[in-house]
Amino acid sequence: MPTPRAARKRTCVAAPEFSLSVQFASEANNLPSRAQVRRWVAAALEHPAEVTVRIVDADEAQALNQDYRDKGYVPNVLTFEYGEITPGVLGGDVVICAPVVEREAREQGKSLPNHYAHMVIHGVLHLQGYDHIESAEAEAMESREAAILKRFHIPNPYFSS
């Protein structure tokens, strides 16, 4: 017998308050929409935040990686965490390199929108202190990413079928 609607447990959790700036600085085609980025950010946030998501081309991603991390390669995603910019509100930038995301999606047999979702969520989790340097941290971060992606019906990116 079905459970009465009023007795069903609600699993929808409201995202914390956040402000978002989405910047497109890439010549790539098939970029995600601002609405998609907003949904992915909202799903990944656990704290109030002011976030910028900037989608760039390889030159800008490599320059940022060199200037701020002293690394010469072109990354798929970079996160610049600013900590609490006002009491209780995190601030930061997530920079995503469109050509790298496109290449990775193709090489890994993933849909481009699904891979963008993963990169946005991955970057927003970094903004909140998640990391993947140590194996225990990586496991926790990957588990959180997979759980968020599942809400969008996106397969676990760390599990190859």
Walk me through the topology.
Blueprint: E1 18-25, H1 34-44, E2 49-56, H2 58-69, E3 77-86, E4 89-97, H3 98-108, H4 112-127, H5 135-151
Parallel strand pairs: 1-2, 2-4
Antiparallel strand pairs: 3-4
Helix pairs in contact: 1-4, 3-4, 4-5
Structure description:
This protein is of the alpha/beta class. It has one domain: Metalloproteases ("zincins"), catalytic domain (Collagenase (Catalytic Domain), 3-Layer(aba) Sandwich), CATH 3.40.390.30. The chain is 42% helix and 22% strand. Strands 1-2-4-3 form a 4-stranded mixed β-sheet. It is globular, with a radius of gyration of 17 Å.
Q: What is the 3D shape? A: globular
Q: What is the H/E string?
A: EHEHEEHHH
Global mean pLDDT? 92
Q: Provide the CATH topology.
A: Collagenase (Catalytic Domain)
Proportion in β-strands: 15-25%
**CATH-defined architecture:** 3-Layer(aba) Sandwich
